[in-house]
Amino acid sequence: MSVRAFIGLGSNLENPRLQIENALSDLNKIEGTRVIKNSGLFQSPPMGPQDQPDYINAVALLETDLEAESLLDQLQSIENRHGRVRSRHWGERTLDLDILLYGHEQICTARLTVPHQGLAEREFVLYPLQKIQPDLIVPGKGALADLVKACPASGIAFLGTINDSTP
Q: Is 33:51 a contact under the CB 8 Å cutoff?
């Protein structure tokens, strides 16, 4: 049975725009998974250490047959293929892929928390989510529209649509 999942994508190293575009293509290659829609690209300042470049972010809506932790395994495999190195907390990265939402589920395991921790306070997640599904209800958090109102867009900028084959 298919589940709709929202995936956060972020990059600030090695041509971040291309990293995001290639990652979207890679998401479509996961068995039993397809990208339904993406948010387009957003630029935002780093959340962590400020001695790093701005981020390019996007959100993708997937339809997947995978269980949540199997999807996480696939996302981490894509990150690794893109040269992801975890050198410091909230530090620079070639690619970061996060499961933001997985159906209507609330998940809390040693490996995975859904909705993603901090989702409600991060404009670089909320504004792209709003581009895809403005009437979204975030499990345990409420209406996306209310979360967006409580999280001003400070420093985030919409860069435009992504030129790829996803609808």
A: no
